[in-house]
Amino acid sequence: MFLANVDVAIANIAAPSIGAGLRASGGELELIVSGYTLAYSVLLVTSARLGQARGYRPMFLAGLGGFTVASAACAFAPDAPFLVLARLAAGATAALMTAQVLTGIQTEFTGRARTRALGFYTVVLSAGAVAGQSLGGLLISADVLGMTWRPVFLINVPLGVVLLWLAWRHLPAGNPSGGDLPAADLSAGAGDARHRAGGSLDFPGVAALSVAMLLLVLPLVLGQDAGWPTWTWLSLGASAVAFAVLWVVERKTAVAGKHPLVDPRLLARPAIGWGLASQAVATGTYFAILFTLALYLQQGLGKSPAYSGLALLSWVAAFGVPGPVLGRLGQRARALAAPAGAVLLAAGFAAIGVSLLRRDTNGALLMTLLGVSGLGLGAGFTGMLGHLTSSVTARQAADVSGLFNTATRAGGVVGTAAFGSLYLVLVPAGAHSPATATHGFALLNLALASAAVAAAVMAWTAVRQTGPATPAHRVPVTRSRKGRSGRSG
């Protein structure tokens, strides 16, 4: 989880250096950044079901091994197109390995041991984001052996080898049938064991979702750099048709008594559909600022990669604060944190935009306001996750978890593409004037504030809905498996 999370942030920090070293275009840079997240988001649910069908240990080992090889390919990429392909491979293999993590925790640990394991899981997510922001800038600034940006990917190789050895020795073989997954398994898309015995995969759903996402994202990523040719508009129109096809395919799958990749019955419920939409939009603003902040600071203001990496630490640190606090509040208060957090997110973006329009480029002020936005996103994330899991029955809990993870990743892809393109319009690649960059980044933040307001409205619409009497996340776990040592947890 740490490696996969680091790779999301670290590529944003490295983007300006990659662009200079490989002479990559703006569109290629966006693909290098968002291609990883695109592959990750599309394959996350499928990867979880593969783990259920074939066993989480072999799928974890396969994913980790592939991620290690893909990282080496990224580090030694000779040109931008090769790096784009290597990043797509890294995202796909990252989905395969990370989808098994929560499955392993749920099946191998019980009681207080499971609580501790889930606590470490949360800490690792936050630590990965912090490390990606700080480590990327420091590695690039150090210019190890004159390799500039390449060590940010190369560092994954020795770590991956060590983890492969540890996983081979310590992960239990388990039962590939997936039959004793608990009903409330929170792994992304692992699903209700009663519905997915035998680990059947919704291949039509996977194909339809992949095609729809590619048709949507590719023109958003490449359109600006190519001058918005006819094919980009045709692709955007075709993406709407592809999503409609996905809806029809998944409805037929559900009617046939099978388990669809994306369950239309859940998405049709306002409490679920609006909640997922809100989370996708809010998360999209984070990935957008992750990408554009590095360009603004390094290319616009001439700051170092280390400075750029450290600038967002206030955001990722503040993101983790609301979780423990909201956990002590009642269900209704946690749900209301979702729209309130989105409002705080919007306020942070708006304050950044206004301050930059006034030519106030003080770094301390920028980092403080980024922390405000991070706090808002953290509150919204925690509140919406609590609302969604309490709005479904126990049999649907894992489905909502899978949709939640997919929505956040898809939102990140679209956010990076849409707002990244907007920034490149406002601040063309050849314009390195601090005044131009500051004005463009200010307008971008005002646009992000508008998106966050829309997320707040969606969140409020969602939390006004009434969920079932029994929260889905309060499901007792009746059995667990033992590892090779014979000890549970």
Structure commentary:
It is a single chain. The chain has helices at 2-22, 26-54, 56-75, 80-98, 101-108, 111-142, 151-154, 156-170, 203-226, 230-255, 264-267, 270-300, 305-311, 313-319, 322-326, 331-357, 363-390, 397-426, 434-463. It is built from 19 helices and no strands. It is mainly α and 489 residues long. The protein folds into three domains: 1-169 and 181-191, MFS general substrate transporter like domains (Growth Hormone, Chain: A, Up-down Bundle), CATH 1.20.1250.20; 203-260; 262-472, Growth Hormone, Chain: A, CATH 1.20.1250. The longest helix has 32 residues, at 111-142.
- Known CATH architecture of the largest domain: Up-down Bundle
The radius of gyration is 22 Å
The domain count comes to 3
Shape from CA axes? globular
Unreliable stretches covering 5 or more consecutive residues: 175-199, 467-489
- Give the SSE string: HHHHHHHHHHHHHHHHHHH
Count of DSSP strands: 0
Mean pLDDT, to the nearest integer, reads 78
The name of the CATH topology of the largest domain is: Growth Hormone, Chain: A
Task: Tell me the fraction of residues in β-strands, as a range.
Answer: under 5%
Biggest sheet: strands, sense, closure?
none
Helix content: over 70%
Number of helices: 19
Q: How would you name the CATH homologous superfamily of the largest domain?
A: MFS general substrate transporter like domains
Q: For the terminal residues, how far apart are their CA atoms?
A: 19 Å
Structural descriptors:
489 residues; mainly alpha; Growth Hormone, Chain: A; 3 domains; disordered C terminus
